[in-house]
Each structure stands twice: as C-alpha cells, then as structure tokens.
Amino acid sequence: xxxxxxxxxxxxxxxxxxxxxxxxxxxxxxxxxxxxxxxxxxxxxxxxxxxxxxxxxxxxxxxxxxxxxxxxxxxxxxxxxxxxxxxxxxxxxxxxxxxxxxxxxxxxxxxxxxxxxxxxxxxxxxxxxxxxxxxx
Length: 136
What we know:
By secondary structure, the chain is α+β, with helices and mostly antiparallel strands. The chain has four helices and seven strands. The protein has a single domain, classed as Nuclear Transport Factor 2, Chain: A (Roll).
C-alpha cells in the first residue's frame, strides 16, 4: 500500500476492524507505530511497535470478554498525512457498560499508519471501565 492516499489507508483499517479482520488491520500499521492510549488506566500510555499495540488490543478484548467494539460514527476528515475519524466505542465487563464517542487521529506515512492518537469524550469513565493503571 505504499504511497496510498491517507484516507484510503484509514478506510481499509477501519473496514478491517469492523469485519473482525485484526490481521489485516494490524498489517496496515507501520512496524514502528506509536499508539497513544489516553487516560490513567491499565492500557494508558504510548505503545511502540505492532507487538505492543497488539498486546493492548488483546488486553482490551480479554478484559471486556470480547465485547469491545469500535465503529466509525461520522465522516473521516483529512489534513495532509493526518486523518481524524469520529468513532463510537463500546464494551461490557462485570456488569459495567462503556458506550462513548471519541476521535481516532491517524498519521499515515508511506501507506502505513505511523501514529495513532486516541481521544474519548469521558476519560474518567473510560479509566473506570478499563481498571486502574499498573504501577509505573
């Protein structure tokens, strides 16, 4: 996918996630991807590399017992190599429900997602859902 339009790459990424095709979605990440997970919970922080990002996503699926889901909720907006994507993310765990809006900001270079910054509408609620941050 070298030299692909950033919106095309972002669309392929979210289409793969929506179809449950994690392998294709992960294949669109740069090997040195920097994933900026917000908040103060067990998944927060900057995770570098596909393996680290896979561990975060896998951890979220485990904690939510497979219920974590992300859907695109509006039009993608581009500015050069950046693509802002309005999303809605949901999950359930131990009787708790998370359902909130967010924005995923992807930076796409050379046809790969090089950086991801995630934003949520209610960071304290997201932190409460995912659980306390590990000692750092």
